[in-house]
C-alpha cells in the first residue's frame, strides 16, 4: 500500500465514530417515495446539506426534480465535487448512493428497534435504510472527508451523488438528471454504485437482467358462488392465464448464462387481488402481477407480445355474452420496465481499479458477475459509461430489523478512497 493511501485509510479509521453518528442522523429521517405514501426525500436532503455545509467541497449542487406529490413539490438530488490533483481537468469518479428508502413493512416484525429509531448494537446500526443505502452513502462521504482532513487531493475528481427515487424507478432521480442535465456526464467518467454486493466484498456487478413488471387485469361478471352459470368467475380465468403463462415463459425463455445468479430468466407471479370478501362470491374482477427478470439476450417486446397473445387465447376459451357484453376482458398493464443495456466490460478501468483496491486493502481476489435486481448503474451503461455495482453487505435491504455493519461501512470507505487515489 502506498504511503498516501495508508494515511487516508488510517484517517478513515479515526473517523469511525463520526461515521456512525452521521448514519444514525440520516436513518432517523424517513425518506419514503410518494409512490408508497411518503413525503419524499426533502428533509433527508436538507439534513445532508447541513452535515456537509462546512466541508471544503469545491462545488455542491442541488437539482430538484418537480413532483407535486412530494414535500415542497420536489425530489432533490445533491452533487458534491472534490477536485482531483489536476483540478477541473482531472479524470472523474462518480460514487452514487440514494436518499430514499422503502417503507418499513410489518412493524410487528421489527423486534430490535423501530424502523426510524436507529439503534447501535453488536457493532451494527439498526434501522430502515441503514444498509440500503445509508451505509454506502456515509462511506462515500467519509472517504472524501479523510482526504479533506489531510489536505490530500486525489488523482481523480470525486463526484458524490446523493439521489432521489431509486426504490421506485429513478424517474425523479438518476433518470431525471440524465434526461434534463446531460451536460453533467462525460463518456470517460468512471461510475461506482455501492448498492449491491456480498458479505466479503468480493463481488463486482457488471451486468443486470432486464426488469419487467406487468399486471393482468381480468374482468368477468360477479355472481353468487351457488349460481356460477349466471356470471363469469374472473378468478378462474386469471388463474388459468397465470398458470399457462408461467409455464410458457419459463419454457420459451430458458437460456442460461452463468454470469448471472440465478443463471436463467425468472418469471414470478407476486401479487393477486380481487374484490371478493366472502367465500360465496365468485368475483367479477381479478388481478395478477408478474415480476420478470430477463437475461439481456431476450427482447421484452417479444415477451409482452407473448403475454398479449396468451391473454387473447384465454379470452377466447372463456368467451361468453352476458347482458349484451362479451366477456372476459383481459388487459395487460406494464408497471415497470427496464431494458438491460450491454454489460460493463470486465476489463474496463473501473473494474481493474476496484479489483486492485480490494486486493491491496483486503488481500482478496474479486470476481465479476451479473444480477437479477435493478440498480441505476444501468442508466450509465446505456450512455456507454462503464459502471459497476459493489459494496460489502449482509443483504439486509428491505428486511425487518435491517442493519448495517459498522466495519463494512468503514472498510468500504477505504476502498472508495483507493479508487480515487490509485
From TrEMBL:
Protein name in UniProt: Diaminopimelate aminotransferase
Cofactor requirements of the protein: Zn(2+); Co(2+)
UniProt keyword Nucleotidyltransferase present: no
Stated family: Belongs to the peptidase M20A family.
Gene3D superfamilies xref list: 3.30.70.360, Zn peptidases
GO molecular function: hydrolase activity; metal ion binding; transaminase activity
Entry-linked PANTHER family: ACETYLORNITHINE DEACETYLASE (PTHR43808), ARGE_DAPE-RELATED DEACYLASE (PTHR43808:SF32)
Metal-binding keyword on record: yes
InterPro entries: ArgE/DapE (IPR010182), Bact_exopeptidase_dim_dom (IPR036264), Peptidase_M20 (IPR002933), Peptidase_M20_dimer (IPR011650), Peptidase_M20A (IPR050072)
The entry's keywords: Aminotransferase, Cobalt, Hydrolase, Metal-binding, Transferase, Zinc
Domain Peptidase M20 dimerisation: 206-318
Top-rank taxon: Archaea
